[in-house]
Specification:
Blueprint lengths: L3 H34 L4 H24 L11 H26 L5 H24 L3
Length: 134
């Protein structure tokens, strides 16, 4: 029988994944709209989409994923700064990976999905360990 700690981790990681899937939907939508209507280059569209999706993700993670039993009336400034520092590091690194993949893959959508897949697990660990630590 799994321990309570392991069950809690599974539940938390499932919530993290659910928020990330919802955020990814928003990310892809903004990426697509930026490419289509703003005539953005893929790297610029990527950055615009990441900024908007990261705001959604931070609010969702802070209120749902990592703090399910503590209602929040305000933003924890320290956590927010840590989260957006992670985003500030992640977006340029991911943009470089996206650019490199675009040299190999012709579709910006495939390159974006591959890029985001590379960063998903690392971001969970960093978010859990350093931003929303208990």
């Amino acid at each position: 029988m799994p321990s309570i700690q392991f069950r809690n981790w599974r539940f938390e990681s499932a919530k993290y994944a659910a928020v990330q899937v919802a955020g990814y939907g928003l990310d892809i939508l903004v990426f697509s709209l930026s490419l289509r209507y703003l005539s953005s280059r893929p790297s610029v569209a990527y950055i615009i989409a990441k900024i908007i999706a990261s705001i959604f993700a931070y609010l969702s993670h802070s209120n749902f994923t990592f703090r399910p039993h503590k209602p929040r009336n305000r933003i924890n400034l320290s956590q927010a700064m840590s989260y957006f520092l992670l985003v500030a590091i992640n977006v340029p690194l991911a943009s470089v990976v996206l650019y490199a993949l675009l040299l190999i893959v012709s579709s910006p959508y495939i390159a974006k999905i591959l890029t985001d897949g590379v960063f998903f697990l690392v971001n969970y660990w960093v978010t859990r360990s350093f931003v929303f630590k208990n």
